[in-house]
Amino acid sequence: MKFTFISDTHCKHKQLPKLDGGDILIHCGDISSRGYEHEIYNFLKWFNNIENYKTKIFIAGNHDWFFQDNPNKSKLILSEYPNISYLQDSFIIVDNIKIYGSPWQPEFCNWAFNVQRGDKIKEYWDKIPTDTDVLITHGPPFGILDKVIGKNISLGCEELLKKVKEIKPKVHAFGHIHSGYGIFYDGNTQFINASNLSESYFVTYNPVNYEL
Q: What is the pTM of this model?
């Protein structure tokens, strides 16, 4: 099964290089600048019109306030795009592959979907099914593709790392830390930071294609 992962496009999705096509296209959050309604529509229209993928999935990120502040209206808008799957602490099964998505991340400058580190955020990770094949979160696990260039500080979530080590999904995809872009394999899980923008918010990194 051919996947393409993208993330942190921040309204610049139309500037991405042409997507190669495949079975599943996944966006790991931060589709917008600040989650304005017109930004959400702009993204969904673009995402919906991509024709060379059978399944299209996305989660929200810390910039995507609309999904946190207007959950009911979000559902109404998403109902206009039945070919797009939005995951928020939920999963979809595609050809026997279970894909679970969650937007939460440790507190970061009081943005959307922020939760205190430790027991508070662990409550969200405890919802992840143990038989998840592909895990999508907005933020990275601690110590994996989670550093800003020039700063040797891990910004990922400790509790998320523990959960991933426990359930061992085949793939864990995320974004949030733009300059953490890349892939890393620990012997059990393929980690993918699919951020497309640099820390300066220029389209810099290519979509990540992965075959499972």
A: 0.97
